UniProtKB/TrEMBL annotation, chains A, B:
Coiled-coil regions, chain positions: none
PANTHER family found in the cross-reference section: 16.7 KDA PROTEIN IN WHIE LOCUS (PTHR36114:SF1)
SUPFAM superfamilies for this protein: RmlC-like cupins (SSF51182)
InterPro entries, per the entry: Cupin_2, PKS_Associated_Protein, RmlC-like_jellyroll, RmlC_Cupin_sf
Protein name: Cupin type-2 domain-containing protein
Ranges of residues in domain Cupin type-2: 36-88
Length: 121, 121
């Protein structure tokens, strides 16, 4: 029997900002939840598109040619190779859809980098 | 510059039940919106998992060993090969994530079957 995912409950369980947690796998992608606050880090994913869906709060995705501002129920796909930097002035809840291979800080390693094992824990 | 997707606006534009509309591509998957009401058709996707996320209303997914009931903010992944039949007593809005190759009625063709070209239109 299949077990539903309750996104609100998954967000409630998240203790740390910028620490994505995998809630489902669909084909070769993971669906993740993350709480964001503050500024992340400029990075790109060479071979992977990344979908952001805001569930609560407001997310600004800085791009080299401007920025995209997303509120609840709004989404954007950052195409592969596009450098971006997520920012949230206040606490923001986002759902991410990205390939299982995606490193959330892309080609950059910082103290915020979480391994896939950590994201699955 | 990237263009955000506003899910509420996408749902408002949908005129017909059971007629998914593609709103984004992320890697090898499409993100679709669909309005559901009534009962669909039993089917399976041999090689593709399918994610359902309910945005409004209540969705019942009948399975051969029971059923899953989803409300707003709840989601389930129907694994490849699992026969299922979506039902909604009242109007229900769902987001779907599934491979670009997925036929929404799976291995079954009915008068509700919509081609990928129709879903992209």
């Amino acid at each position: 029997m299949l077990v539903p995912i309750d996104f609100a409950a998954e967000f409630e369980r998240l203790a740390d900002f910028w620490s994505p947690h995998v809630v489902a796998r669909v084909n070769d992608s993971y669906v993740k939840v993350a709480k964001l606050q503050g500024e992340f880090v400029w990075h790109a994913h060479a071979d992977e598109d990344e979908l952001f869906l805001v569930m609560r709060g407001q997310l600004v995705i800085q791009l080299e040619d401007g920025e995209v501002v997303l509120g609840p129920g709004q989404s954007v796909v950052v195409p592969r190779g596009v450098r971006h930097n997520p920012m949230a002035a206040e606490e923001c809840w986002v759902v991410l859809v990205e390939p299982v291979a995606t490193k959330h800080t892309g080609d950059v390693v910082t103290d915020r980098t979480r391994s896939i094992a950590e994201q699955l824990a």
